[in-house]
């Protein structure tokens, strides 16, 4: 039997992470891996879902400072890691997470300009034993991704930021996945069918390289 894994899906808004999570779960099931837990960040525990609402809400006369935004992301993440992800991994389950700490590095670091040293400090303080085995990065142009999200529903607080913000976020993603064996990059600009086909091919290949 393959050892259980912690898999992350990353990408900008509208990259298709929700679709990818479901697709990967199906591939795992086809390989007889049935103990799979799907989570999203921020969220997936009662408290983290409340933090998520706060993060997405637009305030008329007040706004989160960038540091407060980072800490809220980490508060939700630590809650999820301790309450759900670590217990699931300990009991042999596979975990697929829609976003993880790389989102903070990309959005609060690249997008908002918080010093990487601070973000990495939070990571080393709180996520030591929760390192992903694989990260799938869905690479979408900010314009295409935001158009998809805009068609779906009104934009939330973070989605309403400038194109420049998302371009900076993407730069950090691309910088971090470069030459890293634990990342799979998928072009997410094309239609769902082609993206899904590509994910299926790459994940199946990756699974075949994992020790049985
Ligand atoms: N955030 C999060 C931070 O700033 N720092 C952090 O540390 C963390 C963890 C979370 C927000 O928080 C920020 C990032 C986010 O702004 P969210 O709503 O969960 O809020 O945002 P996302 O995670 O980006 O979720 P989205 O739903 O916006 O993006 P997805 O999941 O990538 O996209 P998906 O699959 O829901 O698709 C969106 C729409 O596009 C269509 C879908 O049908 C759907 O309508 N679509 C496609 N259409 C055409 N072609 C394709 N290939 C398509 N793929 C999807």
From TrEMBL:
HAMAP family, sorted: Thymidylate_kinase (MF_00165)
Function: Phosphorylation of dTMP to form dTDP in both de novo and salvage pathways of dTTP synthesis.
Entry binding sites for ATP: 11-18
Protein name, as recorded: Thymidylate kinase
EC numbers for this chain: 2.7.4.9
Originating species: Buchnera aphidicola subsp. Diuraphis noxia
Keyword Methyltransferase listed: no
Listed InterPro entries: P-loop_NTPase, Thymidylate_kin-like_dom, Thymidylate_kin_CS, Thymidylate_kinase
GO molecular function, one term: ATP binding
């Amino acid at each position: 039997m393959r050892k259980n894994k912690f898999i992350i899906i990353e990408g900008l808004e509208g990259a298709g992470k929700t679709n990818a999570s479901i697709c990967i779960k199906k591939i795992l099931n086809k390989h007889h891996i049935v103990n799979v837990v799907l989570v999203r960040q921020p969220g997936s525990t009662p408290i983290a879902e409340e933090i998520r609402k706060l993060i997405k809400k637009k305030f008329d006369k007040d706004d989160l400072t960038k540091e407060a935004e980072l800490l809220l992301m980490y508060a939700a993440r630590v809650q999820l890691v301790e309450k759900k992800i670590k217990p699931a991994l300990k009991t042999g389950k596979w975990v697929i997470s829609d976003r993880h700490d790389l989102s903070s590095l990309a959005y609060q670091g690249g997008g908002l300009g918080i010093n990487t040293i601070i973000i990495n400090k939070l990571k080393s303080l709180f996520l030591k034993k929760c390192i992903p085995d694989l990260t799938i990065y869905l690479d979408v142009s900010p314009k295409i991704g935001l158009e998809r999200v805009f068609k779906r529903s009104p934009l939330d607080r973070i989605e309403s930021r400038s194109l420049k913000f998302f371009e900076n976020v993407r730069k950090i993603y691309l910088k971090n996945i470069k030459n890293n064996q634990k990342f799979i990059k998928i072009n997410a600009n094309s239609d769902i069918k082609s993206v899904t086909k590509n994910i299926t091919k790459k994940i199946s290949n990756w699974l075949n390289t994992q020790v049985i």
